Structure formats: structure tokens, C-alpha cells
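Worked example 4.2. Below are the chains of a multi-component assembly; read each line carefully before continuing.
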Amino acid sequence: MNHLVRFVIYVYSRALGLYPRRFRDEFAVEMRTVFRDTIRETVAEGPWSFIVVCGREFMGMPFNIWREIWHEFQGQEAVMPGTPFFPLKNGTWGESFWAGLPHLLFAIFVVISGAMTNPRLAAISGIILAFLLFAGLLVTIYYTWRSHWPAWSASWYGYVGLVVLLFSILPYQYHVGIAERIFAGLRFVLPVLTGAGLLYWLSRRNPIEGLLMAMPVIILYWFPVMEFVPNSIRFWLIFWLFLLSALAAMIITRLNDIRKAVWLVLGTSILSGLPIAYARTYWHNIPEGHFSPPTIGQMAELFMLPWLAGGALVLGPILGWGLWFFGRKHGRAGRFSTILMIFGMVINLIGHFNHWWAFGHQTYLNALGISDVYRPNETTALSMVSGGLAMVLVGGFSLVILSWRQNKLLSIPLILVPLALPLAAMLPTYFGNYVIPAGLSFEFARLANMYRALIFLIGALWLVMSGWTVTRLYHPPINREAA
Amino acid sequence: MKAQLTSPLTEATFFILLSLSPAPKHGYAIMKEVKLLSQGRIVFSTGTLYGAIRRLLEQGWIKRVSDPEPNPTDRERKAYALTDRGRRAVNAEIERLKSLVTTAEGRTSESPS
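Applying the procedure described above to all two chains together yields the following C-alpha cells:
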């Protein structure tokens, strides 16, 4: 009997390891002692009592463990201690208005330009409005500089970046000489790199600012979807897009809570994208005057790619920094794992774009006249995609091993989140032996419906899990007032 | 907070708080006391007891204290005691139960036999 008692106590002690970390740290030793005392007492009462008590303890255990895991999931306990938090107060209504204003200005710009029926008048007013908008952006940047760059000003940077990018791309195709081409290339690449650098820097300083700055990216992603939508409908869709973004930017600034802001941005993208996908599917001008109700598959195809790509680019910097802060808490090994993972993701992404650059935009490259200096090939693209994925795998697994004991719940998405998108993009490589650039529809057309649906499903799961991971990696707002 | 104090407690919570009412106790003693007080109706498993203890600690109704009956061979045992808030919660629940009983007794004594 003594052997059996010792064995039962041993099994119970091991099973206590299934409780969440915090609960285990606090109560496991006591629970073991109480269990041991209970068992010893029941042994003295007879075998039947021993069986009843063991049954009660072990039968109730799964439910008790699940209850504590759920409790941690709901509460703040799941947040790792030591993750960064940002000492911010809720934004005022005035600040919220300033954050929403650039989106509102673009909405007004769309309304005024769309309302002009005379083409000549529309062109002139368009130029005047564009000039006013650009001047307004510069004045605001000056004002925000004088106000020591408040958080709401990030909402303007994205638009400034877009306007600068637009002006830097426009004269691109008119250069013929090699020196001019290099200069034009630099003028295109430098604003992109500066914008990306600013986005990552802002996301590190305050993820809310990073999110506000990246919001125009989501808007930008919906524009190609509206390509064949008649102007009269497109005008309202664009207006709706900017209006919704303005509202989202205002609420984000007012709440000033990254955990809610992430879902707000993804939700805004859904609300913007669904009517656009519907309109594109329903109203065709190719062939002329052809109307057909959309199928779910058609809508999903048009909706999912911009939603995933826009969401991924917006969440990317915040998730990246969250992972970096998380890895840093696990010493040198944690830092190394995170760097490996982030670099892996970057290399993987470049691999995808390498392929896209080589095939999808060959015509564009020819037009620019630089195809003779850039010669990517399939082997390079595949090596970069596979190498990047391997780096993500190694970094992810080592980070999970390091963090597993501290937070199992967070460890699982930590391995799945960075893996899911490269894996989704890699699926066609397994099935069709070529690389699919993430978020670009031309290449998806080659795939069978089942693979496309699979990629969309994994992509949607990835985006939701990324959002959830962001909410777990950053401190809850409850701590902000104390800072 | 007032709503929490005046709202009905679960039977298990009530008995845990009641068992701690006279003096601090460790986990095993609480289990035995609750079984005794409830006349064998409530028998906690260890996991259920410590889940409840965790919530009561978070609510601030109980607190950890040094074991009143230290056992030289068992250094890991911890005891729990009622806080003022916990005591107010028990008293409020007792008052609520008394009021229920008074109302029920009044109504049954009025009914025709």
C-alpha cells in the first residue's frame, strides 16, 4: 500500500506541472502537501475511502487546470512581467480630432474632386487641392515639431510619406541616361527606406504612433481592388474608406491602448474592404454593362489578399518589437533567437519579392530600363525563401524553449505566428514548385482553388494570432497611470 | 465593492470564509473544517480549494499569514486568515441569510394550518 501511496503522490505532483506557471509557483507546494495529508488520512480509513479520494482529486483535475488557464487567459496574468509599457494617458478629444484630420481632409478632397462635373474645372481644382493638401501637411509637420511631436502627429506622417512617394515616382519613366536612372532610383528607394525606418522607430517609441502612421498603408492596399469599379461607385467607396479611417484614428488616439487599437485597425480594414470587394465583384465594366451577384469565393479572393497584406505590414513593426522586447528578457540566447527570427522573416520576404520583381514586374522593369542590371533567378528566390524560413524556425523554436516555463500560452503563438505566413506563402512551392509572393494576386491566379482557400485560411489565422500576440506582448493599460 | 459584499456568496466561498472566521488555518485544515461545517455536503478536492483560495486572495477577502500550528517537519505549509473585507463579506452574508430565514419563518407561521 505504501508503494501505491507514494506512486499516487508522485503522479499528482507531476500532474501539478500542468497548471499555469503563476498558479503553480504560488500553490503547487502547498497543494502537494495537502494532497499528501489527505491521502495518508484516507489510507487509514480503508481502501474504499482511498479510491474515492483519488477519484475525486484526479477526475476534477482537468477542469481545475482548464479553469486556471482560462483565468490567466482572461486576466492580466498572461502578460509577461518586464515587457515594455508606455506611460501614456488617454488622448483628449482635441488630440483625437487632430489624429483623424488627415483622413478627413482626404475624404473632403475626394468629395470635392468627385463633385466636379466639368473635367477642366475638376483638373484645376484637383491641382489646387493637392497643393493645399501638401502645404497643409508641411504646416502640420512644422506645428507638431513645435509641439514636440505629440502622438497624434503620427497620423500625418503616413500621408506625408505617401505624398512624397507619389512625387518621387511620377517622373520615373522619363529618364533615359544611366546617371539619371540611378538618381531616379535613389529618389524612389530613399523615401521608402526613410519611411520604413521612421515607422519602425516610431513603433518602438510608442506602438500607437506606429499604428497611426501605418494606417494609410491599409487604405493604399484597397485602391487596386477598385480598378474596374465604375467611377460613380468608386467615389463613394473611397469616401467611406477615408471616413472610416478617420474614425478609427480618432478612437485609437482617444483610447491610447495598443491592445484595442490592433483590433480596431484590423476591423476597420474589414469594414472598408468588404464593400469594395463586393462592388468589384458585382459591377464589371469588362465586359461592358455586365452585372452578376458575387460568390463568396470571388469576394474572398478580392478581399483576403489586401486585408492580409495591409494587416501584416501594419502589425509587422509592432509584432517585431514585441518579439524583440520579449526575447531580450531571456538573455543573450533570447536576443539571438529573436534576431534570427526577425532576419529570417526579412530574408524570406525579400525572397518572395525577388521572385515577384523578376516575373510579375518584368514589364515595369523594362519600362524603367533597368532590367539589364537586375537579373534575379528562381534559385536565388527559392534559396532566400527557404533560408529565411529555416532561420525563423530555429529562432522561433529556441525562443519557445526559453520562454516555455514562463508562459506556455504565449509560447505557442510565438512559434506559430512568424511561421504561418512564410508557410502559407511556401505552400505553392510544395504543390506547384514556384514561389508565391505574399499578398500579390497575379501569381495566385495560377493556383488551384483549394490551395488559394488554404492560403487565405492560414493567412487569416495568422493575422488574428498576430493581433492576439501583440495584445499579450505589451503591458495592459492598467499599469500606465502608475508610470 | 458594496455590490460584491451584499451579493449572495456561493456556498463553498461562504464556508471557506466561515472556517477562517475564528482563527487562521492552513489548506488541509480548511478542507476538513468545511466538510464538518457543511455536514459532509461540501468536500473540496485540493485543486478546487486552491482555485477558490486564489480568487479570495485576489479579491482581498483573505490573506496569507504564518502558520498558527507550525509543524517542524512541514516548513512549506502556509496559513490563511480573514481580512477586514472578508469578515465584512461573511457578516453581510450571515445578515442576508438571517433576513431570509426571518421572512420565511414569518410567512410560514402566518399560513393556515
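Take a moment to check your reading of the output against the notes. Residues 19 and 261 of chain A are 31 Å apart (CA to CA). The mean pLDDT of chain A is 74.
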